[in-house]
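Suppose a colleague, Dr. K., hands you the sequence of a protein chain of 103 amino acids and asks what its three-dimensional shape might be. Before reaching for any lab equipment, you can write down a predicted structure in token form. Begin with the sequence itself:
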Amino acid sequence: MDTVARNWAEDGITTVEDARKSSSEHNNAIYSIKRALGIGNRDLVESEINYIDKWVNSFCFDLDIIREACERTIASTNKPSFKYADSILTRWRSEEHTSELQS
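The predicted structure, expressed as tokens, is then:
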């Protein structure tokens, strides 16, 4: 609970409505990424959720970009791998920043 409250404070979530919207968006991201990775009837573990939080909140990637990385992960490894998807997204993030610096 403390972690959730801290995260909400950091994100400027101060009302119940803001919290509901954030929770709904978070659940949508988790469901969408699970589908893209072919993960069915199981809950994600904390480390997997941490990857999603990184991609959505730290990297600020749209779900379309995250899903593309997940689809490439499945195409390359034939299995769901958050670590592999993270390597793709981290590389894209690095390339994005490099091109911004060169502009």
